[in-house]
Specification:
- This protein is mainly α.
- It is built from 4 helices and no strands.
- It is elongated.
- The protein starts with a helix and ends in a 54-residue tail after the last helix.
């Protein structure tokens, strides 16, 4: 208990400051814990934003005198070391995944199952295949001993040959007049 009026006043002031500093210190811990949790989870884009915010809050607490300058520097340093290690590990894992993907053989194509022959009952249920058209109907020459199809010629006529085009007479270059 305080023995003088000035000591009593000092005690009252310390209680007010403690209440004020307590919320700043608590917020600082919350931001640092949140950043560490995101780093451990591996969500680096979100972790980067959380780390920046934690660094700002630590600097603000140091400026207000809530925490000592060396304490703020130590916490910031440890936070950045963890974040940098997580970024390096993620980059290394990505490089390893790329190297593994390049080294892996290409995926094999699935093997098709052989076609089953239909039994007699299944063949009766299956739709019938269309009958093949005779060669004459397709525009081909008929087989030997058969009459040509109606309206079709037995052989195609060759197009008439064109006479070779005459070349234009070569022009003589104008000779330069003597000087």
């Amino acid at each position: 208990m305080a023995h003088s009026r000035s000591a009593e006043k000092r005690h009252r002031q310390s209680l007010k400051r403690r209440a004020r500093n307590r919320s700043v210190r608590s917020a600082t811990r919350t931001y640092v814990t949140k950043a560490l949790g995101l780093i451990e989870a591996g969500t680096l884009p979100e972790a980067e934003a959380a780390v920046r915010e934690a660094l700002r809050v630590l600097d603000r607490a140091q400026k207000k005198g809530v925490i000592h300058a060396n304490s703020a520097a130590r916490r910031k340093s440890r936070l950045m070391v963890r974040y940098s290690a997580a970024v390096a590990a993620a980059a290394e894992a990505e490089a390893a995944a790329i190297a593994e993907a390049e080294a892996a053989p290409p995926p094999e194509e699935p093997v098709k199952a052989p076609r089953r022959r239909l039994g007699r009952k299944a063949a009766e249920k299956a739709p019938a295949r269309p009958a093949k058209a005779p060669a004459a109907a397709k525009g081909r020459a008929p087989a030997k001993g058969r009459a040509p199809a109606k309206g079709r010629a037995t052989a195609k006529k060759a197009p008439p040959k064109k006479a070779p085009a005459k070349k234009a007479p070569a022009r003589k270059k104008k000779e330069e007049k003597g000087k």
